[in-house]
TrEMBL record:
It comes from the Bacteria. Residues 3-105 form the NIPSNAP domain. Pfam families: NIPSNAP. This is NIPSNAP family protein. It comes from Acerihabitans arboris. SUPFAM superfamilies: Dimeric alpha+beta barrel.
Length: 108
């Protein structure tokens, strides 16, 4: 098992739009493609409070590649993501890291 940490850095004032997109659109696509979220967080104290951090659980990097690529190429997802940014962009940049649990981690 591996965990992917993704941090979406939003343009100022656009975090609510990103949260709405996840809540009303993205999570349904995740379910459709068997993408398993561990949790979602916003930043209370840190360099910016315009970001959303979330973790995804994968069986392997190959599992991630198959499921993520299918999700990202879904025409309905692309259309809905594009529509959500019709007025103005939401995300300035995305960071992601792949994490492997230690032998003493509660989540393995």
């Amino acid at each position: 098992m591996i965990v992917e940490m993704r941090v979406y850095h939003c343009l100022p004032g656009r975090l609510p739009a990103l949260q709405e997109r996840f809540r009303n659109t993205t999570l349904a696509f995740f379910a459709q493609y068997g993408i398993e979220p561990v949790g979602f967080w916003t930043t209370l104290i840190g360099p910016s409070n315009h970001s959303l951090t979330y973790l995804l659980k994968w069986q392997s990097l190959a599992d991630r590649e198959t499921r993520w690529n299918a999700f990202q190429s879904d025409k309905d997802w692309i259309a809905k993501r594009t529509a959500s940014e019709a007025d103005k962009p939401i995300v300035e940049r995305i960071e992601n890291s792949f994490l492997a649990p230690t032998d003493f981690s509660a989540l393995r």
